Amino acid sequence: MKLKKIHMGSLLKERVEESDLDMARIAKFFKCSEEEIQEHFERRDLYCEDLLKWSKLLEYDFFRIYTQHLILYAPQRNVHYNKVTAKKSSLPQFRKNIYTKEIIEFILEKINKGKMSKNEVIEHYNIPKTTLYKWIYKHEKSLIKKNDPPSI
């Protein structure tokens, strides 16, 4: 999946096709016409409220796609950097970075195919060196397990 340029409408359409949902049911759920649903599929982005409805209807977290984009292309920097005052935010605080299985596979694929070196990945995506090496170690370990013959 391309996480750099996200076209949410095409992702919605793909998920609808996978789940074999009837357009009439979707239109009824959104309380609009089937033509308006088709317009959703053509849009690059949607209102949050509409995306939340799509996520519920299709039982898929479409917001996670944006979250993964943020992790890869705009990682959170040091929390204390340029901190003037210790203001407490009313917004929920999240853990620094949560790397999903898809993100890890995406990065390891770049390294394995020679598209990026380990140092380039560390610098470009701001991933801690120890974290990257743990991923590589676990990935190699899982490959060895898959290739082992079954014991008798």
From TrEMBL:
Species the sequence originates in: Chryseobacterium indicum
All copies of domain HTH psq-type, residue ranges: 109-143
Protein's name in the database: Transposase
Domain of life: Bacteria
SUPFAM superfamilies, A to Z: Homeodomain-like (SSF46689)
Lineage: Bacteria, Pseudomonadati, Bacteroidota, Flavobacteriia, Flavobacteriales
Pfam families: CENP-B_N
Xref: InterPro entries: Homeodomain-like_sf (IPR009057), HTH_Psq (IPR007889)
